[in-house]
Amino acid sequence: MKDQNLYNYVLQHADSSLILGQRLAEWCGHGPILEQDIAMSNISLDLIGQCRMWYQYAAEIQDEGKSEDEIVAFRDAWDYRNVQLVEQPNGDFAQTIFRQFLFDTYSVHFYEMLINSKDERLAAIAGKSHKEALYHVKWSGDWVIRLGDGTEESHDRMKAAIDELWSYSGELTKPNETETKAFEEGYGVNLAALKEKRDAKIREILTEATLEVPESTYTHEGGKDGRHTEHLGYILSDLQFLQRAYPGQEW
Amino acid sequence: MSEERTNTNQLINQSTIYQILENVTDPEIPVISVTDLGIVRDVLITDDFVEVIITPTYSGCPAMLEIEKDIHNALKKEGIDHFKITTVLSPAWTTEWMTEEGKQKLKAYGIAPPNPTNPEDIECPQCGSKNTQLLSEFGSTACKSLFKCNDCLEPFDYFKCH
Ligand SMILES: [Zn+2]
């Protein structure tokens, strides 16, 4: 492999997009109303489209003749590098919205900054994905406001979602070794700068939604290095079934 | 077979290829062609080899695979055998590359075309009223959002700016 660190960096982002896309796809046909069912399927498609760009690049860096499908289908949970947030269950609509909001506030700034990567391929993926992330964060942010500043019940459910997921938020902006090195080498994003922008956005939206920003800064971590909650294994058993049963299928 | 053009008989130039591509339509919006959409970025011809360069609209757009196949089949049908279709990501596709003709075709088909100057001001493609409202940012495909006309009360798709 040409560059192990670049490979890991690419894989981390590929995996997070894939797993969140898969989670959102679970809503297909079960959304609270038709328009929002469609919205979640659309966002899921965007994320899966984005992860394909990442996996195709990963396959090239790896240079072992493996396809994007093989990278997805034939790794076990400990080789997946997604953040733990995205593997958390859908819960109710509020929980799905808040998980999405935590991810979108990260990814919109991540792609915005990655456009300046000195790695041209990463910059191209970012340019494409950033436009989509702008729509995503608008959607999830609007729903956080609508539910938080809605009825007593919707407010309580948003509050419960925040309590449930807040401790998975910090992993997104807490650099692991891969990300630190990627930043030092000029192709990765400065997560400290990203965190500032993201925190401000979260505060702005939660305030408008009449919700409190939790004070706790404790965060679960390790997903980016292959340590996962129990949920990932179940997702993979669904996601990988076809390729494991009938290897060699294509998208 | 004498009428069939081949890559070697010098009849192939950029405009022949563009003419072929003008008849390849979007599988989800069959009135608009791939050239109207602005996803054909370039056509390169070297000796007897044609390279068509395209860029995806949305990263998750399932139509892209179909479009690539359709371009492939259209070229083959016209006797072009030596070609490849290359997908580039950068610069990222924007609705600003959609042709004026393409926008008119969309409108006639009942889809409000992208309006970059005033995205708040979307005209109903049925009755022309500007008294319209957004129902959902996400519509039947990744490129569209869902609107409603407050005058004729018809719902309609809006091809959103990207
Ligand atoms: Zn109308």
**Which sequence of strands runs across the widest sheet of chain B?**
4-7-6-5
Biggest interface, chains and residues, is: A-B, 29 and 22 residues
N/C terminus separation of chain A: 25 Å
CATH topology category name of the largest domain in chain B:
GMP Synthetase, Chain A, domain 3
**Low-pLDDT ranges of chain B:** 1-5
Domain MIP18 family-like (chain B): 15-77
InterPro entries (chain B): Fe-S_Maturation_MIP18, FSCA_dom_sf, MIP18-like, PaaD-like, Zn_ribbon_PaaD
Protein name (chain B): Ring-1,2-phenylacetyl-CoA epoxidase subunit PaaD
Domain PaaD zinc beta ribbon (chain B): 118-160
Brief summary:
The complex is a heterodimer of chains A (251) and B (162). Chain A is mainly alpha-helical. Chain A contains 11 helices and no strands.
Secondary-structure topology with pairs:
The complex is a heterodimer of chains A (251) and B (162).
Chain A: H1 4-25, H2 34-62, H3 68-73, H4 84-87, H5 93-114, H6 120-148, H7 152-165, H8 177-184, H9 191-208, H10 231-239, H11 241-245
Helix pairs in contact in A: 1-2, 1-8, 2-6, 5-6, 5-7, 5-9, 6-7
Chain B: H1 14-21, H2 34-37, E1 40-46, E2 49-54, H3 63-77, E3 83-87, H4 100-109, E4 111-112, E5 132-136, E6 144-149, E7 155-159
Parallel strand pairs in B: 2-3, 4-7
Antiparallel strand pairs in B: 1-2, 5-6, 6-7
The structure holds zinc ion (ZN).
Residues 124, 126-127, 129, 149, 151-152, 154 of chain B line the site of zinc ion.
